[in-house]
Amino acid sequence: MRVNTDLPLERAGEFLRRKMSTIGPLHDSLIRDLRTLTRDRVEIPAGRMVVGEEERCPQLYLIDSGWVFRSRGLASGRRQIVNFALPGDFLCSDSILFKASSFDLIARTGVTLFRIETPILADMFTHHPGLAAALAWAAAQEESVIAERVVSLGRRDSLEKLAHILCEIAARLEAIGRMTGDIIETPLNQEDFADILGISVIHVNRTFRKLSEDKIAEYRKGQIELLDRQRLAELSAFDPDYLHFGHPSGG
Amino acid sequence: MRVNTDLPLERAGEFLRRKMSTIGPLHDSLIRDLRTLTRDRVEIPAGRMVVGEEERCPQLYLIDSGWVFRSRGLASGRRQIVNFALPGDFLCSDSILFKASSFDLIARTGVTLFRIETPILADMFTHHPGLAAALAWAAAQEESVIAERVVSLGRRDSLEKLAHILCEIAARLEAIGRMTGDIIETPLNQEDFADILGISVIHVNRTFRKLSEDKIAEYRKGQIELLDRQRLAELSAFDPDYLHFGHPSGG
DNA sequence: CGTTTAATTGACATTATTCAACCCGGGTGG
DNA sequence: CCACCCGGGTTGAATAATGTCAATTAAACG
After folding, report:
1. Distance from CA of B163 to the nearest CA of A (A)
2. I need a surface site. Which of A85, A124, B26, B121 has the fewest CB within 10 A?
3. Residues contacting B213, CB < 8 A, separation 6+
4. Residue B196 CA, nucleotide D24 C1', distance (Å)
5. Closest CB from A74, A98, A139 relative to B155
6. Under CATH, domain B2-149 is a member of which superfamily?
7. CB pairs below 8 Å between A and B: how many?
8. B208 Cβ nearer than 7 Å to chain C strand
């Protein structure tokens, strides 16, 4: 994949900037803050937890590459994925406020993270306004995304759920320049979709088949082709407002 | 209801303090900030939107009394309540970052709000650290609550869902000193529960009946009596960690 | 009283789950 | 090269959960 900046840190910063075009002028400050506060780069193999079980989530992370799930495993063996984080998303931003999270962070792919020194809350806004703004923006956006997930889980049927999440994934990948045409490249298998949408694997399969029969989308291992984005959006009444991206076309 | 402080503003501040016992020492600063920045007190009748349709959500609010829903109405007539806000909760805290929200705020009861002058983000942390911390805490906590809602909607059956939300409501009311014994006083009717839990009204009714048959909880108009909180928590594997309250017993 | 709103109940339809089987491609070891 | 296995994926049938429709009751209110 082509990247127009050399340093990985600037690439991640660029992801942030593209998403947060509403915030705008803080971009330079953000890059500077990241440069100042980034400690090191961590590699985490696929399948591992980002922060261990009882290890208190101590650090702030910025994803450089890979997909990370925030999920909860229930006693009955069921699992629900609350959300997933992509390059340019923060992890553990609530570690500044809470000692521990009640959810698991799991690397779905191999993942590289920037570990960021977390300044005292007060210092953050005075000395690192760019980072502070980015964190606030990201937290608010994540909240909005989860709220939309609640709507999907509560009041959309399986076809609408699937169509909606495909639209969301496409929009989020586009926001970080990772959509090539109408192909979603993703590590999500059908079981992951099941645990995101709150339905069974079998039903995910059937629902993908319906999308395929109607020539709307085609599931393949490792990628999903969107054949008719118009109808995909209509099907789920997808309205990207909740993502709070600027106008990505505007650059 | 008996309140141990005279000024309404201090009562709302007290709600915040009780919840945010983890933050601790910022209490005095918070009250001072509220005193400085609170403009006026707004009354909103039951059923009305807190901020009108296209009116840009301009202000930060702190709930003094009443219940507020954050919800989304779908074209098909379905409705999903994403979360509900109680006295001591903020409204529109994301208005500092985003122009508009993609969700509706609706007063379920008559509601009184403190309208709070929103300082510039940067000023917030330097001049109003108490408010800043409270806002950050509240935003992170709300996010956690919604994440738990995702788990409920995705992977719990109707009985577990209902049991879980009853535990949550009880815990949240307790945190602001509004639980008297084992009685939940609430404006939620069965349709509201349906729209919170993502199931049909009829099924809410059936599920309440089951709780009643098993002598676990009793639904009555305007209040719900919890007969067996132990079993209610077991039924839904309720773990209050996600609420991030301190130890409420500790005062 | 009559009217309204919410709660309740039963019969039935739909949706989704579970279970069980089978397929298919990519390793791996013989 | 083949036999085998394994993780997904695919399919069908039986079952359970939940939704829809329609009608009834109960309480709340002027």
Report:
1. 15
2. B121
3. none
4. 27
5. A74
6. Jelly Rolls (2.60.120.10)
7. 137
8. yes
Over the stretch A110-168, which tens digit does the pLDDT of each residue have?
999 999 988 777 778 788 888 888 999 999 999 999 999 999 999 999 999 999 999 99
In the DSSP assignment, the letter for residue A49 is B
Residues with CB under 7 A from strand D: A 189-191, 201-202, 205-206, 208-209, 219, 221; B 157-159, 198-200, 202-203, 221
SS3 (DSSP) at A170: helix
Q: Helix, strand or coil for residue A14?
A: helix
Tokens of B231: 């079993």
Substitution target in A95, A135, A155, A196 with the highest count of B β-carbons within 10 Å is A155
Q: What is the DSSP string of A80-147?
A: EEEEEE-TT-EE-GGGGT-S--SSEEEESS-EEEEEE----HHHHHHH-HHHHHHHHHHHHHHHHHHH
Task: Specify which residues A116 forms β-bridges with.
Answer: A38, A60
Residue B41: alpha-carbon gap to chain centroid: 19
Q: Please write the tens of the pLDDT for every residue from B192-201.
A: 999 999 999 9
Hey, where are the domains in chain A? 2-149, 157-243
Strand C near-CB residues (< 7 Å), B 88-127:
none
d(C-alpha B176, C-alpha B25), whole Å: 18
**Closest amino acid to nucleotide D28 (CA–C1'):** B221
Structure token digits, residue A147:
């709220």
Using an 8 Å CB-CB cutoff, list chain A residues near B125: 121-122, 124-126, 132
Class of domain A157-243: mainly alpha
Cα–Cα distance between B135 and B118 in angstroms, integer?
Answer: 11
Nearest alpha carbon to residue B107 among B71, B60, B147: B71
A146–B143 CB contact, under 8 Å: yes
Instruction: Let me know how long chain B is.
Output: 251
Name which of B236, B223, B225 is nearest B197 in CA terms: B236
Q: Where are the alpha helices (DSSP H) in chain A?
A: 8-19, 27-37, 121-127, 129-155, 158-175, 190-197, 201-213, 229-236
Which pLDDT tens digit goes with each residue over B24-57?
667 778 888 888 898 889 999 999 999 765 566 5
Task: Answer whether A136's CB lies under 8 Å from B121's CB.
Answer: yes
Contact B64/B113 with Cβ under 8 angstroms? Answer: yes
Q: What is the DSSP string of B29-55?
A: HHHHHHHHHEEEEEEE-TT-BSS-SSS
pLDDT digits (tens, 9 = 90+) for B55-67: 665 689 999 999 9
**Whether the Cβ atoms of residue A125 and residue A88 lie closer than 8 Å to each other:** no
Q: List the one residue out of B86, B199, B216 whose CA is nearest residue B163.
A: B216
